[in-house]
Design goal:
Structural class: mainly alpha
Number of helices: 22
Distance between the termini: 31 Å
Strand content: under 5%
Length: 575
């Protein structure tokens, strides 16, 4: 239910493999209630749906990456800051507060329910969305600081159009819930993919033809996106309802007329038990939304950054999180399943089957070593190549200001993301239910501290303060996980935390690479011509090759793990 929200926020992609503490709690609060599927077909459908959700997120991130690189050549960073932070926050807040509680309540019971009453309940998202659109639109227009009309014109109409796009999307909510519940997988894939592509193409064309329209371009693109989404669902259900496949599935709705709100004789208008469950989720959704969008609420309501810095920070954050999404997330997801199957929850290593505990310890040690080395490589080379990367991606707009400094700090933050992803992957698989509940309280405290630190550190260091706040919170989470792992294997013959100690030869090679690439940047980059840029890249390539050779020669156990576990697994998937 949450996957679509990560894909629908305009021109920015949310989430990484290990999010800030605020978002971690938000995810814990957002875990939907489930039930054990008795059918292998249902399990296969759910797995397929999850895979398609991941593919949709990848598609959205790639298109976002390309679109931002294109628009940076035509629009100002102030305009991007208003669109990607201020207006995107309005859209996501209206949509989330209007539908999240209804989605979680209606999806929690599976497909066996009175869908007449459930559909009536789901239609309440539209008037609720209208109320939130008016209230939040008024806040965005009259309480928040408006951008300079000379730099970012048409702000007021854009607020109205983004709020309208959120309301328009809510028209498809009953159809979306029915599709999700009954595993109509292709509908979600086609509708969201087509809508994203149409939106990106429309934006690019208008930016090239009429860049002076400014916010009108992005507002119209957002309206087109939500309109296309609603149209796809409507057209699909128009031909699906009453068809033979629908009858074979036992679909509870027979015609479009039954999708409209109406009352059956002798029955209540809505299921009041479901309504009370929705109200419980609704009270929780406020905290979840604040924690999920904590950084952007701090930017928007506390005015810690100007719109230009907000735009640059958002772009750098997207670039950095792509590494975490494409590299670390598959590792975390795959081996969380492995640890969950191998280990019994609760207790310690001595309480497990010894062969299972030994295997888990060996895999954890290799994973820690793997993500540590990847994170160190990104940190080392990110210092010397951030300026060049931003110059190639966004031109002087990104490389001439705070962008390179932000990306250098984010390169270090990626190292913490990597370690936190693997350590929490093991911890959440090994914890008992009671330990997980206690850890949620820790996450709440970390979330509050993150918001406070964000405000304090941005006042001291500007946009770098957000990354510093994330680093401090991520460090505390890693410390908690390492303490748990240490206690888990205490008294056993295994010590997986040895994976955090790279070989001295490798550390020396990384240190030399850091020095050589920074010297190369100072001598060859970045105000010189393209030949000097290529020479700087060549220096980095040679240093990276030396680091990889050092890994092969000094980390033989890790190389064996990669060859026998990771590469063989992906080879089997390909075949």
């Amino acid at each position: 239910a949450r996957a679509a929200e990560d894909e629908e926020v305009p021109f920015r992609a949310k989430g990484a493999v290990s999010v800030p503490a605020s978002r971690g709690l938000a995810q814990a609060l957002g875990c939907c209630q489930g039930r054990i599927m008795g059918s292998e077909d249902a399990l296969h459908s759910a797995t397929t749906l999850a895979s398609y959700n991941v593919l949709l997120q990848v598609l959205f991130r790639v298109l976002t990456f390309v679109l931002n690189a294109f628009t940076l050549r035509f629009v100002s960073k102030e305009l991007l800051g208003v669109v990607n932070v201020r207006l995107a926050l309005l859209y996501s807040t209206v949509v989330f507060l209007s539908r999240e509680a209804f989605r979680r309540a209606c999806l929690s019971g599976g497909s066996r329910r009175d869908w007449r009453q459930a559909v009536n309940l789901l239609w309440l998202t539209v008037p609720l969305g209208a109320v939130w659109s008016v209230l939040l639109g008024a806040v965005w227009l009259w309480l928040l600081e408006a951008p300079d009309p000379a730099a970012v014109p048409h702000y007021a109409p854009a607020v109205g159009l983004f709020a309208l796009s959120a309301l328009q999307e809510l028209l498809a909510e009953p159809l979306w819930v029915l599709a999700q519940t009954h595993m109509l997988i292709r509908l979600k894939v086609v509708a969201e993919s087509l809508s994203i592509v149409v939106k990106c193409v429309f934006t690019m064309v208008l930016i090239m033809v009429s860049p002076h329209w400014g916010l009108y371009i992005f507002s119209a693109a957002q309206l087109l996106y939500t309109g296309c989404l609603v149209l796809c669902y409507a057209v699909y259900f128009l031909q699906f309802l009453g068809s033979v496949p629908a009858k074979e599935r036992g679909f509870p709705i027979g015609s479009l007329a039954e999708l409209l709100p109406r009352r059956e004789q002798g029955e209540p208008l809505i299921d009041w038990k479901l309504a009370r469950l929705t109200w419980s989720f609704f009270k929780q959704s406020f905290l979840k939304q604040i924690l999920t969008e904590g950084e952007r609420y701090v930017m928007t309501f506390l005015n810690v950054l100007n719109f230009g810095d907000q735009g640059v920070y958002d772009i750098v954050n997207n670039l950095g999180s792509m590494v975490a999404r494409f590299v670390f997330l598959p590792i975390e997801e795959s081996f969380y399943v492995f640890f969950s199957r191998v280990l019994q929850r609760g207790g310690g290593a001595r309480d497990q089957k010894q062969e299972d505990a030994a295997m888990a310890a060996e895999v954890l040690e290799s994973l820690l070593k793997l993500v540590l080395l990847i994170g160190l490589i990104i940190t080392v080379f990110g210092q010397a190549y951030s300026h060049l990367a931003l110059d190639l991606y966004g031109g002087p707009l990104l490389s001439s200001g705070t962008g390179p400094v932000l990306l250098r700090w984010y390169s270090g933050y990626v190292l913490l993301l990597a370690l936190n992803g693997v350590t929490e992957c093991f911890v959440f698989a090994a914890m008992s239910k009671e330990e997980v509940d206690r850890y949620n309280l820790v996450m709440l405290a970390l979330s509050v501290s993150f918001l406070c630190l964000s405000y304090l550190l941005t006042g001291w260091q500007g946009s770098v303060g957000f990354i510093l706040a994330n680093c401090l919170n991520m460090g505390l989470r890693i410390a908690h996980s390492l303490h748990y792992i240490h206690r888990y294997f205490l008294g056993s013959p295994w010590g997986p935390l040895r994976g955090l100690r790279p070989s001295p030869a490798l550390l020396l090679c990384l240190a030399l690479s850091a020095v050589l690439t920074r010297v190369s940047e100072a001598a060859l980059c970045c105000d010189s011509g393209w030949l000097w840029h290529l020479a700087h890249v060549a220096v980095g390539a040679v240093c990276l090759l030396a680091v990889l050779v050092a890994v092969v020669l000094s980390e033989t156990q890790l190389v064996l793990f990669i060859r026998t576990q990771l590469l063989s697994r992906y080879a089997k998937k390909d075949t």
